[in-house]
Amino acid sequence: MIFISLEGKTAIVTGASQGLGEATVKRLHQAGASVVINYFPDPKGENCAKATAIALELGERVLCVAGDVRDKEAVRALFDQAIQTFGGVDIVINNAAVLRDRTIKKMSDEDWQVVLDTNLTGVFHVCRQAAETLRTDGRIVSLGSIAASLGFFGQANYAAAKAGVEAMTRVLARELAKKRITVNAVAPGVVLTEMGKSIPKKVQMAMIEQIPLERFGEPEDIANAIVFLCSPLASYITGQTLHVNGGWYA
User: Fold this and answer.
1) What pairing do the DSSP bridges indicate for beta strands 91-94 and 62-66?
2) Is 59 or 139 the better-scoring residue by pLDDT?
3) Domain membership flag for residue 5
């Protein structure tokens, strides 16, 4: 049995107060990494409460930092706090994302822009800071999506952003190879987060029929793939998009 150990490593996970981000934080922590839980500075404090609850559950080696990835200064502050607390950064997980689903005819400029700003430009801000900050043999893993390949109805903004993330991943893999920093993406299918559970039951049933494994993903399925790509086992894998979708292809 091969055991993945990330002891001595520090990981930043954006959008980590719930869903895939929360599951990834827990898996990284279980593997021995110190984890920085980044969450959107929600005025209602809901994300802050969730992030704090996760931190209390995990105990030591955890730091919560509010910050909007659309703001490059907030991203810089996120990395600075991680370095001040843990001495450096080794792993970055780009998970922060939003949805604003509309058909092209009904999609407003704001619907388009907020998704591109968060899901693509936000990843750029984080990756640019990571390129300056990550220690040798570091890891960057960004969340892509099956939407970038299948083009789901009403997701022109989301699919475009995620396709951009996957393309950026291939470029950064070349640019950061000299420091032995690997850069990969994980493209989930439909996952049973709160977002996934909100899909109407009729639509869920139609989707299940297209998945050979006949089930939706669980957050842990995606987190396990991310932790693998962060581990020494994946040291010769870079510039790739790993599809974790139960075999669902067009």
Assistant:
1) unpaired
2) 139
3) no
Q: Does the structure show a pLDDT above 90 at 99?
A: no
Mean per-residue pLDDT over the chain, rounded: 93
List CB contacts of 223: < 8 A, sequence separation 6 or more: 20, 23, 24, 26, 27
Contacts of 32 (CB under 8 A, 6+ apart): 5, 6, 7, 8, 9
CA 227, 146, 3: angle at the middle one, nearest 5? 15
pTM: 0.94
Q: Does residue 4 sit within a domain? A: no
Closest CA to 149 of 121, 188, 204, 207: 188
Measure the CA–CA gap between 234 and 8, rounded to whole angstroms.
17
Strands 62-66 and 10-13: unpaired
Element (H, E) at 111: helix 109-116
CATH of the domain at 17: 3.40.50.720
Query: In the structure, what pLDDT confidence band is assigned to residue 1 with cuts at 50, 70 and 90?
Result: very low
Give a yes or no: residue 179 inside a domain: yes
158 is catalytic: yes
Name the active-site residue from 39, 158, 236, 249: 158
